[in-house]
Amino acid sequence: MAANTSDKLQQLKELLAEVTDLSRAAALLEWDQETYMPPGGVQSRAEQLSTLLRLSHVRFTSDEVGRLIGELEDELGGRPFDSDEASLVRVTRRDYDQARKLPPDLVAEVARAGSVARPVWEKARHDENFGLFAPYMEKNVELNRRIADAIGYEDRPYDALLDRSEPGMTTAQLEAIFAELKKAIVPLIADIARHADAIDDRVLYRGFDPDLQVSYALGVVKRLGYDLERGRQDKSTHPFSTAFGPGDVRITTRVSRDFFNECLFGSIHESGHAMYNQGMGHDIDRTPLWGGASPGVHESQSRLWENLVGRSQPFWRHFYPSLRSVFPEPLQGVDEEGFYRAVNRAYPSLIRVEADEVTYNMHVLLRFELENQLLEGTLKVKDLPEAWNALFKSYLGLNVPNDREGALQDIHWSYVSFGIFPGYTIGNLIGAQLMEKIHTDMPDLDAQIETGQFASLLGWLRKNVHRHGRKFTPNELMERATGQPLTAAPWIAYVQRKFGALYALHAGRY
Amino acid sequence: MAANTSDKLQQLKELLAEVTDLSRAAALLEWDQETYMPPGGVQSRAEQLSTLLRLSHVRFTSDEVGRLIGELEDELGGRPFDSDEASLVRVTRRDYDQARKLPPDLVAEVARAGSVARPVWEKARHDENFGLFAPYMEKNVELNRRIADAIGYEDRPYDALLDRSEPGMTTAQLEAIFAELKKAIVPLIADIARHADAIDDRVLYRGFDPDLQVSYALGVVKRLGYDLERGRQDKSTHPFSTAFGPGDVRITTRVSRDFFNECLFGSIHESGHAMYNQGMGHDIDRTPLWGGASPGVHESQSRLWENLVGRSQPFWRHFYPSLRSVFPEPLQGVDEEGFYRAVNRAYPSLIRVEADEVTYNMHVLLRFELENQLLEGTLKVKDLPEAWNALFKSYLGLNVPNDREGALQDIHWSYVSFGIFPGYTIGNLIGAQLMEKIHTDMPDLDAQIETGQFASLLGWLRKNVHRHGRKFTPNELMERATGQPLTAAPWIAYVQRKFGALYALHAGRY
């Protein structure tokens, strides 16, 4: 046991590499389940996943890992904050403490509750009957509370949950940022609704050959910088991106003949996630530092490419001619400006995952507020649909016709997952915050995009975001990349400018 | 520790289930590597596989597993030999002892030797230069010897290696059977060579649309009984079948426009393997009893469907009309009899994996003899090519033009694997031995096949072979299914009858 520091570091890395391998194997099993697994494989797959995840958890939370972290914390005290070694020990400590704070019984109960609630949620949603699901939602809220208690918090129970997904963020910080958002966006949404006629997007529904859509989308994301030597595209019911290591980062897509946006923007979105993983340093591979800094930061990469690049005018100046040559019939009579406008149509709608760039965050904000109220007991589960519908009306101006399109729409509440939703809005904000800085650093970015050059943009993201993996918290990362922590101002300015122009809103106001 | 027998059994089963899950996860990782993994994934995949297989090995060879087997052997003494419980303990004991007999250092050295030798073998084969590979082959022979010594044997070192793959078989048993084979087949091969003109197989090379071939083959194997709710077909460079559980047993295929046999017969072959796995009892799932009784028994299922069914006259009476409607152009002017004859053309050739039904076993026999001589020191590695070429000439009548098409052709000798080759011939013999019994039990089998009915045949195999998994050794299984242990007589009678007719050989002789 008289091992020196470098031996201990090596020992810790070997244990963590094994844990990584088990999780990555599990990720491949999940990818296969969503893409190619035959129906009969369900039961064996569940057994295999459960074994891999259990072994990975047991090995990670072992006393040996704890002892090594403890000793290395003492011995590595002098290393710079951003060194691989200090970061490894710091981030592993965070993960380790969180994992150890959850009693195994609670972990098992959470898993069980999710499996039991899932089919009930499906039926309740199908039947548009929240009452059916209410008892499971009660349990869900209780378990979220018990997790918050087990992890501990100073101020608000939500802090504990938030810290698991967006380390360093607090409920108070988000409330302040979200209040600013709301103040700016609720009136913008209403204003756009009054000018709805300004954009005609019927071209998107004219029918686009599915195979051609998939191959066109693959060509686009390759052009953006998604490396197919280290990735691939498959089809799945719900698109996702997943990584099994620096050399194998995959995306999936779905395609609809009758709605153009699904395949192309979905593929760009997933390739944004994938390019993040492809850009992580090899030196941090097989450690807890390899991965996205948080779901919010991960989402910033997908939304940046999907919206700030993929729905921009320079992007379509470059791509529209090739798109038109691939789809001459549906695009007949539509010019590049018209197509750019069509893919940017904004309008209040009921379903979060189908929402446009402007309204999307409002869907997130109301979930964040409701989760907090449920957790703190100021809202009863039985009153959730009513509270949902009231907030929806006030933020988006729509009446919710039923719970299927209301409080039952997301799968998230069918398992124990409070604290996840904010990441979607954090991602939008970070994307705009980064883009503002990028435009300062690269004044000719638009001109580059217009000529189909994306390498400098990707290079900037690699250098300032990707390569760091999980070394920094979201706020630390933003401080380093842009000079300040998370802020809503760049995103608000961006949508006001873009949609003010698209909808010819009162120029002075935006 | 005062656990009762049923607790101990449960405890052992849980440990074994975990080991199974790890191996099945590894099998999926290997499947993915051969089908969809992007080139960049190689390194991470090797790490993941190594971790999964190491953990699986460590858990299986733990003292706890040994203690439980030992105690259960005492306590389950009264259970019938073929009961699930007695079989579980018996087979687990066999696997456990074999695994524990190999020192971890030797296991590591074997793995390392394989990785190091593989690229050298590839280069040596490419350069047609056995000398380059000779030092690695020396090491290979030495390691095979050390494995044999570690496992132990009474009579011949090869017995120890054979027992790992074909439990219960001895070198002496195989030598007797193979001598009988040789005596019958060497003259048959020579006789066929003299009547080579009797069959014209040029139709097979006329060009068949690859996509249509793949979908036709899938239709055929579905018809045979391969359940696609619990399986699927993908493409890979080398066709294989793999199982991740009773509900997920997959096949891969490859297709050549210019050679018809590859896709259809390859698919039937792999589906034979797959139907075996699909037919194993659910009650033995996630235990060491779930799997093929041996590589030889597994091969018997693939060869039975590929050759004894797929290359039979009743089969083509049923399928030829639909084949002709799918491929009217290349099949123009060829009738069912002509096509049946074409797919059965037999002729001495250099490469084992391309060999026909008659000559195939001779390729195996010569490898078996050479492995024995190398292991026992009566043949030096440097003299291997010469010995190969001499045997080849005497068995198949061909001069081997170079080592690429001679002693360097198989990947097997690039890693430490003596004792594997016999399984291919054992598979052929078992297939014919089973089929002889099936014809006795089901006198109308040919009529069933002619009308495209395969359910009774599959049902017979399920009942007598598939459902038992690894409960019985190959000889035990054959005793139970046919009344006698492995014998060459049915296969010899089958090829003499079939090829005697096809080539119009002297009727009295065959």
What does this structure look like?
With 510 residues, chain A is mainly α. Chain A contains 20 helices and three strands. Chain A has helices at 5-35, 42-60, 63-75, 84-101, 104-127, 130-151, 157-165, 171-194, 210-224, 261-278, 295-309, 313-326, 336-342, 360-376, 384-396, 422-441, 445-450, 455-464, 474-482, 489-502; strands at 233-235, 241-243, 249-253. Chain A has a three-stranded mixed sheet with strand order 1-3-2. The A-B interface holds A 17-18, 21-22, 24-26, 28-29, 32, 36-45, 47-48, 50-52, 55, 227-232, 234, 244-248, 250, 285-286 and B 17-18, 21-22, 24-26, 28-29, 32, 36-45, 47-48, 50-52, 55, 227-232, 234, 244-248, 250, 285-286.
Give the secondary structure arrangement, pairings included.
The structure is a homodimer of 510-residue chains.
Chain A (H helix, E strand, L loop, with lengths): L4 H31 L6 H19 L2 H13 L8 H18 L2 H24 L2 H22 L5 H9 L5 H24 L15 H15 L8 E3 L5 E3 L5 E5 L7 H18 L16 H15 L3 H14 L9 H7 L17 H17 L7 H13 L25 H20 L3 H6 L4 H10 L9 H9 L6 H14 L8
Parallel strand pairs in A: 1-3
Antiparallel strand pairs in A: 2-3
The CATH class assignment of the domain at 200-348 and 434-471 in chain A is Mainly Alpha
The CA-CA distance between the termini of chain A, in Å, is 66 Å
As a percent range, the share of strand residues of chain A is under 5%
**How would you write the strand order of the largest sheet of chain A?**
1-3-2
Oligomerization category of the chains in this entry: homodimer
Radius of gyration of chain A: 23 Å
Q: Which fold name is given in CATH as the topology of the domain at 200-348 and 434-471 in chain A? A: Neurolysin, domain 3
Mean pLDDT of chain A: 96
Of all chain pairs, the largest interface belongs to:
A-B, 41 and 41 residues
Number of helices of chain A: 20
Elements of chain A, N to C (H/E): HHHHHHHHHEEEHHHHHHHHHHH
Stretches of chain A where pLDDT is under 50 for at least 5 consecutive residues are none
User: What percentage of residues of chain A falls in helices of 4 or more residues?
Assistant: 55-70%
The name of the CATH architecture of the domain at 200-348 and 434-471 in chain A is Orthogonal Bundle
Structural classification of chain A: mainly alpha
- Tell me about the biggest sheet of chain A? 3 strands, mixed
Tell how many strands the DSSP assignment of chain A holds.
3
